[in-house]
Amino acid sequence: MPAVVVVGAQWGDEGKGKATDQLGSRVDYVVKFNGGNNAGHTVVVGDEKYALHLLPSGILTPGVVPVIGNGVVVDVDVLFQELDDLTERGVDVSKLRVSANAHVIPSYNRTLDKVTERFLGKRQIGTTGRGIGPTYADKMSRVGLRIQDLFDESILRQKVEAALELKNQILVKVYNRRAAAVDEVVAELLTHAERLRPMVADTALELNEALDAGKTVLFEAGQAAMLDVDHGTYPFVTSSSATAGGACTGSGIGPTRIDRVVGVIKAYATRVGEGPFPTELFDESGDFLRTTGGEFGTTTGRPRRTGWYDAVVARYASRVNGLTDLVLTKLDVLTGLERIPVCVAYDVDGVRLDEMPTDQSAYHHATPVYEEFEGWSEDITGVREFEDLPAAAQSYVLELEKISGARISSIGVGPDREATIIRHDLLG
Ligand code: IMP
Fold first, then answer.
1. Which helix (H) or strand (E) holds 200?
2. Where in the chain is the domain with CATH 1.10.300.10?
3. Is the pTM higher than 0.90?
4. Which CATH code, of 1.10.300.10, 3.40.50.2300, 3.20.20.60, 3.40.50.10190, is assigned to 103-194?
């Protein structure tokens, strides 16, 4: 039985939630291993639409054990809010396990995230303002607060004091804000301890034991390859490892345990926040993709930037993740287009590049080299077999497969759970 990692192969919002939700009842554990409530999964089950930010989408499937791994940064208020909302809607959330080593997002880091962005002005990253960056920075600077610290008041106080010694200087002297009070921060965090305690576990041990016992474990990445702190378009990235390697460091399982790595990729491209995006469209085609694809942020409501499919990005994501499969989503959004351009390479100052340039300036100058494919006008949302797609849609998928670095195993043709064409079993 496999350990499967699901990652985003573009700039996020590819539909990873739906992909993992689909494997649903065949999976025993779903693990979130990076990021925090900067993520946004929309999962549609029947008439119900769920927008999850922090919890792994596996929480919606009865029988699945959802896990928040050590690589995640947790805003405990948001965690409880999401659990309450789901409980109210009849979802059983009692199986959730949270790593004792996951870091906590304290309120002062939410403040710092927002004021830093304002301070950066036109150099801003366009973060979600949830305190993600400052909390990962604290982790690496060794002044972070972990979930387990909430169960020992004296240790928690020492750690908050240590963190605030420098941060308050920055808040007051650089940003002209009020200093955070140690007592208030400690008191606020302690209020969460009792409710959190039963969920907290040695999740690394549990996951390794589950794999030993032949259970199926799905590792669900937040964000995506192009937002990965190492492999993305730095510095316009998130602050965690959103590629497959992050599944190991962020959950405590070794690389030799992973059987499959599935990249989720949209049939076109989107990005939120700042940073390079070579196939970005500023014309009515871009508006068409945004409107038809409902491309507005789940977390922030921001309109997403839209563009054509970029096969250079797909090949890069395939490489840095070691993808075994691609899940192509939202093919139905392209219905009605006469011709569909696909970026097959970049032109950088007159030179053709077939692979991602390592030089960031080159990437900022890269313009797409397009190949155009024939579109289709038939409604494809009811199609469930690849052969029943219009010939032009089949051909579009097969052409993408040739140039994207991994086989396309599943195709999304609509928002519903069932609106999917399966070509290869992701757990087989
Ligand atoms: P942060 O993760 O809030 O620090 O934001 C850093 C960058 O990652 C910004 O450009 C965000 O818009 C982007 N980002 C973070 N989470 C997501 C996501 O789930 N989908 C798409 N973009 C995201």
1. strand 200-201
2. 103-194
3. yes
4. 1.10.300.10
d(C-alpha 37, C-alpha 326), whole Å:
25
Out of 21, 28, 41, 113, which one is annotated catalytic? 41
DSSP 3-state assignment of 11? coil
Residue bearing the CA closest to ligand 1, atom 15 = 38
Output the CA 242–ligand 1 centroid distance in Å. Answer: 11
What pLDDT is recorded for position 1? 60
State the alpha helices, DSSP H only, in 71-151. Answer: 76-88, 107-120, 132-141
Active site residue 85: no
Tokens of 173: 């002297």
Question: Which residue type does 261 have?
Answer: V
Q: List, in sequence order, the alpha helices (H) in 170-283.
A: 182-190, 193-196, 203-212, 245-249
Could you state, in chain order, the average pLDDT of each consecutive group of 10 residues for the chain (428 residues)?
A: 93 88 86 93 79 88 94 97 94 96 97 93 91 97 97 97 96 95 97 96 98 96 97 97 98 96 98 95 97 87 94 98 98 98 98 96 96 98 98 98 98 91 92
Pocket test for ligand 1, best of 18, 72, 75, 223 (most atoms within 8 A of CB): 223
* Predicted pLDDT at 97: 97
Q: What is the β-pairing status of strands 260-266 and 41-45? A: unpaired
**How much is the CA Rg of the chain, to the nearest whole Å?**
22
